[in-house]
Amino acid sequence: MTQCYRAMVTGKVQGVSFRQAAREQALKRQITGHAVNLADGRVEVVMYGRREALAELCEWLWQGPPAAHVTHVGLEPLEMPSEGHTPADFTTR
C-alpha cells in the first residue's frame, strides 16, 4: 500500500549534495516525490512509496550524504493525492 510523508530535514543540509543523494536513495527504493531546498536552510522531502521503503529512506535522512550534519528530521503523514496525481519520479528542485 502506497503512503505519503513529508520530512523536514534540519542541520547542515544545503550545499552538501543532500537533495541529489536523497534522490538516489529514493530511486533505489522505488520511492517517488521530491527534495527541495527551503529559504530557511532546511530541505523538504516529500515521498510516496511502500511503508517499508519509506521507513528506510527516513532512516537514511538522519545520516544524509557524508558532508551533511543532520540535527533533526520532522516527519508528518500527508493525504495521498487522488489517483493519477502521484509523481512518477523523484525530482530535485
UniProtKB/TrEMBL annotation:
<comment type="similarity">
    <text>Belongs to the acylphosphatase family.</text>
</comment>
<feature type="active site">
    <location>
        <position position="19"/>
    </location>
</feature>
<keyword id="KW-0378">Hydrolase</keyword>
<dbReference type="Pfam" id="PF00708">
    <property type="entry name" value="Acylphosphatase"/>
</dbReference>
<feature type="domain" description="Acylphosphatase-like">
    <location>
        <begin position="4"/>
        <end position="93"/>
    </location>
</feature>
<protein>
    <recommendedName>
        <fullName>acylphosphatase</fullName>
        <ecNumber>3.6.1.7</ecNumber>
    </recommendedName>
</protein>
<dbReference type="InterPro" id="IPR017968">
    <property type="entry name" value="Acylphosphatase_CS"/>
</dbReference>
<dbReference type="InterPro" id="IPR036046">
    <property type="entry name" value="Acylphosphatase-like_dom_sf"/>
</dbReference>
<feature type="active site">
    <location>
        <position position="37"/>
    </location>
</feature>
<dbReference type="InterPro" id="IPR020456">
    <property type="entry name" value="Acylphosphatase"/>
</dbReference>
<dbReference type="InterPro" id="IPR001792">
    <property type="entry name" value="Acylphosphatase-like_dom"/>
</dbReference>
